[in-house]
Each structure stands twice: as structure tokens, then as C-alpha cells.
Write a structure and sequence with these properties.
disordered C terminus, single chain
Length: 234
């Protein structure tokens, strides 16, 4: 019996199993491209080199550095949002809110479809079991009302439908569940990496820009006092 013959022998629910099998293949390809082929980490010394620009207050240089070294990375995009906020003299709350929003978008890009694979695997298994049950029901119902000559034929057809449905359901489910486990592990690693690096850059921006502002705040009162003293002496 050929594969197509076995497919048709599995009964009505085989078409649902085939649908979820095709969806599984599509999602495996799409998630594989996003999580492995398209994901790019930042260069090894990215934070240290970027920190040199931030510490000196050269935000334009930091922006040019990101454009040249990490324009298509998630961490680079989060850092760019933070730099633009500081360049526009945004406060600390606005800085955190905008960077968190961009980080959320980046995380969602990697995490948004992986969970469907687990659902596809479970549903394909359930359709296989449903086909098994309906095959056995039709088999025994036919045997009960058939003549002795037809009973063997009806029984074999029902059992064939039940077993084929089970087999194809498992064939569709196993790759989906295996792919889900692999991609979920990869997603967790990517999300952890992006979140950790983005958090470090946020604190760098917060610390160094606050330090610069504090220095300016201290210089201005001191200059005012010096000017006041010189005027009183005159």
C-alpha cells in the first residue's frame, strides 16, 4: 500500500492532520530563519567601545558607532532609542520607558510564534486519536450489522482507518514538539542576552549622563558664588 493509499485509508480526520502538518513545516522554517539565520549578536567589544563615547558625552559619535557596527541587532536598536532620548534631553523616566518599549518589541519578535508549534503538535495528536476512535466505532458498528462474510472485511477496514490515523497524527506531532523544545530554548537564550545587554546599556546611559548633569549643576552655583564675592569686594 502506497503512502497516499494509507492517507486515504485513514479517514476524514486525515485532512486536518495534514493541515497541521503543513502548518508545522511552515512555522519550523519561519522560526528557524528568525532565530538562527536572521538573529545577529552585537560585536564582542560593543558595550566597551560604546561606553567610551557615552562617558565623554559624545552622543553623535555613539550614534555613528552603532550605525557602523550594530545597525541590525536588537541591542543596537535599543541603544539607539536611548541615545536619541538623551540627545533630546529626555528625563530618566522617559529614557526607561522608551528603552523598555523597544526592548519589548524586540523580545516579541523572537517569541511571538514559537508557542504555536506546541499547540500544533498537541492538536495533531488529538486528531489522530479522534480518527482512531471513529475508525473503531465504525468498524464495530459495521461488524454488528453485517453478514458473516462481510464482517472480516469491515473489521479490517475500520482497524486500518484507526491505525493510519494514529500513525499520521504522531508523524505530524513529533516534529512539532521537538522543534518547539529546540526553538523555545533558543528563544530563551536570545531574550536573556538582549535583556541583559539592554539593561547594562540603560544603566550606563543613566549613570554617565547623570554624572555630567551633576557636574554642570555643581559648576553653575560655584560660578555664581565666585561672581557674587567679586561684586561685593568691588
Amino acid at each position: 500500500m502506497s503512502l497516499m493509499d494509507q492517507f486515504h485509508a485513514g479517514g476524514f480526520f486525515m485532512y486536518f492532520i495534514a493541515l497541521f502538518g503543513l502548518l508545522t513545516i511552515g512555522f519550523i522554517i519561519e522560526r528557524g530563519m528568525v532565530l538562527y539565520a536572521r538573529y545577529k549578536s552585537t560585536p564582542k567589544d560593543f558595550r566597551r567601545n560604546l561606553l567610551a563615547f557615552i562617558a565623554s558625552g559624545d552622543f553623535a559619535g555613539a550614534k555613528a558607532f552603532i550605525d557602523a557596527n550594530a545597525p541590525k541587532t536588537s541591542v543596537g536598536r535599543v541603544a539607539m532609542v536611548g541615545l536619541k532620548q538623551r540627545m533630546s534631553a529626555a528625563g530618566d523616566e522617559a529614557l526607561q520607558a522608551r528603552m523598555d518599549e523597544q526592548l519589548s518589541r524586540e523580545v516579541n519578535h523572537y517569541d511571538k510564534r514559537t508557542g504555536f508549534l506546541a499547540m500544533f503538535g498537541n492538536v495533531a495528536t488529538l486528531f489522530g486519536l479522534l480518527g482512531t476512535v471513529t475508525g473503531l466505532i465504525s468498524s464495530f458498528a459495521g461488524v454488528a450489522s453485517a453478514s458473516p462474510v462481510e464482517r472480516a472485511n469491515l473489521l479490517s477496514q475500520g482497524i486500518s482507518e484507526a491505525l493510519n490515523s494514529t500513525a499520521f497524527g504522531l508523524v505530524a506531532a513529533i516534529p512539532a514538539l521537538v522543534a518547539f523544545a529546540i526553538f523555545q530554548n533558543r528563544t530563551d537564550a536570545i531574550v536573556s542576552e538582549i535583556t541583559e545587554e539592554s539593561s547594562e546599556l540603560y544603566h550606563d546611559l543613566l549613570f554617565y549622563t547623570e554624572s555630567k548633569n551633576a557636574e554642570k549643576t555643581e559648576i553653575l552655583p560655584n560660578a555664581a558664588k565666585i561672581e557674587e564675592v567679586s561684586i561685593s569686594r568691588n
